[in-house]
Structures are given as structure tokens and as C-alpha cells.
Amino acid sequence: MALRFEELSWSETPMGPISLRRRTDPLLEVDVFEVKLGDEFLMSSLFTVAEVELARLGLAALPTGELDVVDPVDVVVGGLGLGYTAHAVLEDPRVRSLVVVEALGEVIGWHESELLPDTAGLAADPRVRLVHGDFFAMTAEAGYDPQLPGRSFHAVLVDIDHTPRHVLHPSHAAFYTPSGLRQLTRHLQPGGVFALWSDDPPDAEFRDVLAGAFTRESAHVVTFANPFTGEDSANTVYIAT
What value, to the nearest 5°, has the Cα angle with vertex 238 and ends 144 and 171? Predict the structure, then answer.
């Protein structure tokens, strides 16, 4: 009989202890994978709709090729987590390469060890490179591909902080400013897309910040069923081109 609760991984990190846990939910009768950073819940395999939509909405905003020609697409995902955004990116047949930047080597190790059944095989996909690094520092410097400094991408999709206002570390805050976002545009191809996940409803002030750095911006509310409240919950995906 499988254990009802199991701690699959625990590590001390510069941001605090991080753990990956599996539990069997007695109400839903499914295995749930959860990540905690210190005492704070970061993510759960029960709620992944918006993480998947981050990939789908971001890639849908890219320009389409002429006639039936499929233009190859190079993508960056900032924040690996349970891997649902990266996994959804790979479902797009246009994707030629995917660089996933993750600050915690322990999280990369979960995927290399295939501890997460829903996204198993992600690390082994030949299109994928998992890069251990600080996404925000790399934005301000030579970019997201240590092998090719200055390389530009068609889409950069980010799911790291809870919201632009509620960040995991004070050093992240500068990214969500006009100058921080303008630094990101240096790493995008012409017509490229920046997409951001947020746990809060659309933020008018942050949309103004996006509008100051990009040609177009929009905010998409993504709803999903919450079995614990019996109602819908919602996240926001911002898209800027």
C-alpha cells in the first residue's frame, strides 16, 4: 500500500528550506504533489491550469508565419517549479528550443530524477536545457543562455514570484519596474512576447508599467475549479509584446 504522505525531497537553500511532498488527498482520492519554501506553500499539482495557460497564451501571442510555413520558436521559462509551464511549451509544434532558468538546483534535481509523474521526461527532451541561475540577474546581464551570451528569444514566460508586488526575495522587485522590464526586452526577438503569471487579480498600476516598456499589453483572468471551496478560483496571466 502506498504511503498517504511522503516527503520526496528536503533541502536548505539561500531562500530557506524547500521541500517536495506527495500526499494522497482523501476527498479527491488523488496523489497531490506540493512544494513548500519554509512555511509557505508555493505550488500544488492540484492547481496548474494557469501555469499551463501561461505557456499557451504566451505562445499564441507570437506572430504567425506566412501561409503554411511554421516558423521555429525559441523560448525561455523563468521558474521551473513542478514543470507544468515548460511541459505545455513543448506541446507547441513550433518550439525548437526551450531554456528553463531555475534558481534552485534542488528543483532541477527533482526533474532529472523524475520525481514528478505528470512532467516526467521534461529534463530528457532534446529541445530542453535546464539552467541553474538567477533569472533576474541574468535579465540585467548577458541573458538566459550561458553558452551564447546575448542570445535573443521569441518568448520569455515567467512564473517565479506570487505577484509583481509579493515577491519571494527583495532583489526581485526591481524587475517589475519600467527599467527592469526594458532590460528584458533586450533579450526578445522583434515581435517577441513576455508573459507573466500572477496570483492576484489584474493590477492596473502594473499594466501601466508594462505599457511603458512594450508596444502592447493585456491581462487575462484564468479561472479554475477549486474543489476545497466548491467555487472557482482565478489567477492572472499578463501578455506583453
Answer: 50
Domain ranges of the chain: 47-240
pTM: 0.92
Cβ neighbours of residue 58 closer than 8 Å, sequence gap 6 or more: 155, 157, 193, 194, 195, 237, 239
Q: What angle do CA 106, 85, 158 make, to 5 degrees?
A: 80
Grid cell for residue 27: 476527498
- From the list 235, 185, 233, the residue with the least C-alpha distance to 209 is 185
- C-beta of residue 201 within 8 angstroms of C-beta of residue 162: no
Tens of pLDDT, residue by residue over 40-80, are 888 898 899 999 999 999 999 998 755 444 689 999 999 99
**Other C-beta atoms lying within 10 Å of the C-beta of residue 239:** 22
Q: Are 236 and 213 in contact (CB under 8 A)?
A: no
**How long, in residues, is the chain?**
241
* Each residue's pLDDT tens digit, 163-221: 999 998 899 999 999 999 999 999 999 999 999 999 999 999 999 999 999 999 999 99
In CATH, the number for domain 47-240 is 3.40.50.150
| Torsion, Cα of 148, 178, 199, 238 (10° steps) | -70
Cα distances from 9 to residues 6, 43, 221, in angstroms, run 9, 15, 33
Full 3-state SS string of 177-202:
CHHHHHHHHCCEEEEEEEEEEECCCC
Provide the 3-class DSSP secondary structure of residue 233.
Answer: strand
